[in-house]
Amino acid sequence: MAKRYDIVIVGAGPAGLAAAEAALAQGARVAWLDAQSAAGGQVWRKDIRYGWPRQAARVITEVVNHPHATWMPQTQVIAAEQNALLLQNEREGWRITYGSLILATGARELLLPFPGWTLPGITGAGGLQALVKQGWPLDGRRVVIAGSGPLLLAAAVTAKRHGAHVLGIYEQASDAAVHGFARKLWRWPGKALQAAVLRSQLAGIPYHCGSIVTRALGEHALERIEIDGPHGTQRIECDQLAIGYGLVPNVELAQMLGCAMKQEGAHPCVDVDTSQRTSVTNIYAAGELCGIGGRDCAWLEGRIAGLVAAGADIDASLLRQQRHARTFAAALREHFKLDPYIHDLAQPDTLICRCEDVPLQALKDYDDARSAKLATRCGMGACQGRICGTALAELGLFPRSGQRPPLFPARLASLGELASSSETEGSFS
Ligand SMILES: Cc1cc2nc3c(=O)[nH]c(=O)nc-3n(C[C@H](O)[C@H](O)[C@H](O)COP(=O)(O)OP(=O)(O)OC[C@H]3O[C@@H](n4cnc5c(N)ncnc54)[C@H](O)[C@@H]3O)c2cc1C
């Protein structure tokens, strides 16, 4: 028989943490899970050298040890239907049911293909941060950080803290756009302070605007990159390139549950009301999957979702703060809009699906992602189209298609659980 919980929270980043803290404070019994081995999500990922940031460590310890919380680390949701989830960890698959569900599945990086982008030594900007925090050595390596958005600064700080020689940060947005954004920061004093701290930690590291990495070169691994900037093309010798073009909401689970979506540029995000309710009864969503808004916004929305799911009132000031946080997200989108030139960097032989080695030219004859997938295996690999499908949507080739189970590669034994639960307790389609 599937175990039932009052409230289940998927995702242990700032949104999931705030939701758990708020719901537990109302006396609810909460089950809380994340695919990662430690809580904290992307921004508060536990660093093997430095641990969690102080503020996060306090909340994580309180929530994980709360007597009414069931914490399930290294647990993925691999399939879902209303009121039930199929979970999998490294040992088993099992089914749980819930009264209310809070989705706090966050975001992933937008990686866009360009010649050489699959060479060893190239990762996402946040991807490099994640690897380094989990122990990947960077001591003395020459690192270039590129792409777009404030995440580049955070990635550079982490790389530097772990001994990398950061050669420079290359932002695609123009000088005017970045300075225009900086001039607006006074409206969000917390963000202005955060930016000032990051800049002081990066003293001496050059920050170039209007600069786009067009090519990566190397025989067996990355040796150098080419960058087009305001002063022409530049070649830089480096060991590591960390490149990301902003973030994309992780909506696959919400899509599988039938939650209504809205578009943010080329990518869907979950449509919620002011109480973080989705279009599906008893399902709430908070944080980056409702649109890229950053850590503070995720925290506030998680708190709202946790309170409402636990039956508590939300005060007007919380709603005001959330609205203000969302205006920051809108400013980010406006000022760090991608230069269309980036969409044209991939050449016919550039790999689009790096799991299944599918080049751009192999996709030209198809009208939609599903036909292309069936004929070329594009999107059938370990990432299940999260990287290539998202890139293809951004390039305007195919919109993202709906989601079918499993959400992540699953063991046969876990999928067997799908079959047995549908026989005894109703169907997982
Ligand atoms: C790689 C990366 C690095 C980042 N670094 C920074 C930074 O240094 N500073 C900064 O201000 N912002 C950073 N961000 C931005 C970040 O998205 C937000 O600031 C903040 O972490 C958002 O909080 P959240 O709770 O909405 O989502 P997240 O923090 O992304 O948390 C979502 C969690 O949900 C889990 N999850 C998703 N789907 C499932 C599933 N099906 N089953 C189980 N678990 C699931 C994930 O494992 C993840 O831990 C980063 C983003 C990324 C993608």
UniProtKB/TrEMBL annotation:
Signal peptide: none annotated. PANTHER family: ANAEROBIC GLYCEROL-3-PHOSPHATE DEHYDROGENASE SUBUNIT B. Residues 5-290 form the FAD/NAD(P)-binding domain. InterPro entries: BFD-like_2Fe2S-bd_dom_sf, FAD/NAD-bd_sf, FAD/NAD-binding_dom, Metab_Enz_Cyan_OpOx_G3PDH, Opine_Oxase_asu/HCN_bsu. Pfam families: Pyr_redox_2. This is Oxidoreductase. Transmembrane segments: none annotated. The keyword Oxidoreductase applies. It comes from the Bacteria.
